[in-house]
Amino acid sequence: MHKIFGIRENVAYRTRKGAYLIAVKGNTVGVVQTPKGYFLLGGGMEYGETDESCIIRECMEETGYAVCIKKRLCSAEAYEMHPKLGYFHPIQTYL
Predict the structure, then answer these.
(1) % of the chain at pLDDT higher than 70
(2) How many CB atoms lie within 10 A of CB 6?
(3) pLDDT digits (tens, 9 = 90+) for 52-75
(4) What residues form DSSP beta bridges with 23?
(5) CATH 3.90.79.10 is the classification of domain 2-94
(6) Domain boundaries, the chain
(7) Whole-structure pTM value
(8) Residue 21 burial class via C-beta count within 10 angstroms: exposed 0-12, middle 13-18, buried 19 and up
């Protein structure tokens, strides 16, 4: 499943691809706590990374744990006005 949020304006957007892990163990979902709140494990992709390699790298950086990725769950993108970045187009894959 793929969802699109927002309406695309006729302007230049800053696009950022990212991949996120929905880590489940029993009835608990793994997240990272930051000063801004709780977030799924993962983040922005570096040049040449796949969704899987991005998540593996991000999880090791954020938690120090290696992860096992089972399957792709869904993806989403948004067209929005970010307070610091301006017109922003995040494209996210959830595994």
Answers:
(1) 100
(2) 12
(3) 999 999 999 999 999 989 899 999
(4) 30
(5) yes
(6) 2-94
(7) 0.86
(8) buried
Contact 17, 77 (CB under 8 A): no
Q: Give the largest Cα separation in the chain, rounded.
A: 45
Alpha-carbon gap, residue 31 to 56, rounded angstroms: 14
User: How many C-beta atoms lie closer than 10 Å to residue 63's C-beta?
Assistant: 13
Written as one letter, the residue type at 37 is G
The four Cα atoms 69, 62, 75, 71 give a dihedral, to 10 degrees, of 0
Q: What tens digit of pLDDT does each residue of 9-29 get?
A: 999 999 999 999 999 889 999
Instruction: Identify the residue whose tokens are 């290696």.
Output: 66
Q: How far apart are CA 52 and CA 19, in angstroms?
A: 8
Alpha carbon distance 4, 13 (integer Å): 15
Name the token pair of 53.
Answer: 């390699």
**Residue the block writes with tokens 């979902």:** 29
| 91 alpha-carbon distance from chain centroid | 8
